[in-house]
Specification:
0% strand; 3 helices; single chain; mainly alpha
């Protein structure tokens, strides 16, 4: 967690309200050195952007697995 790109950013980007863009969160996640670990953790989360993927994208990934 200490190496995460989001550690100093705050959570507002990663939990956008319905209809708001998650583009900023994804931009922060893109170069993150712990993105894979974050995504693995986030697969069990219902809300937010985790490892650069939205809720909808994580659901698709689960179905494909």
């Amino acid at each position: 967690m200490d190496d995460a790109a989001c550690v100093e950013v705050g959570t507002e980007f990663f939990f956008p309200d319905m209809g708001e863009s998650n583009r900023d969160a994804k931009a922060i996640c893109a170069p993150c050195p712990v993105r894979a670990q974050c995504l693995a953790f986030g697969m069990g989360e219902a809300y937010g952007v985790w490892g650069g993927l939205s809720e909808k994208e994580r659901r698709r990934l689960k179905r494909a697995a």
